[in-house]
Amino acid sequence: MPAKSNQNHLLIIEDEKGRKEYTLEEPVYSIGRDPDVDIRLFSQFVSRRHATLVRREREDGSLYYRIVDGNLKGKASANGLVINGRKLQAHDLEDEDEVVFGPQVSAKYYILKRDSVPTGPPDEFDITLISPNMMGGDPDDWTP
């Protein structure tokens, strides 16, 4: 039986409405400007169903996402995908890949590795104390 993936997959979108982060956990995500997609992009230069993310599994049991231009029925987007500077129909995403959907609309993909997952309650004595002297700068500049 393959080892359970010990990773989080993160997609950070930047578009006309700013920056938004998505933790990827589902097997499939639709991406575009249509209000019914899973990951909505805000730009007139993006297709309603611009791209699709599909979760895949490697032989070692680790998971990754493949991005495909358009929808899963084969209908491509109007402007396509530019991934790491190359126009591609599909791509197996790797850590820090950049996907451009259109002018000023892009995404950055991250694989966040976790060393361990806590299995019990937190240790009540495992705390970090921070003295105000350790913060540096003017105390009036600190935000709560």
UniProtKB/TrEMBL annotation:
Q: Which domain of life is it from?
A: Bacteria
Looking at the record, the residues that make up the FHA domain are: 29-88
State the InterPro entries in the record: FHA_dom, SMAD_FHA_dom_sf
Q: Which Pfam families match?
A: FHA (PF00498)
- The protein, known as: FHA domain protein
What species is given as this protein's source?
Answer: Coleofasciculus chthonoplastes PCC 7420
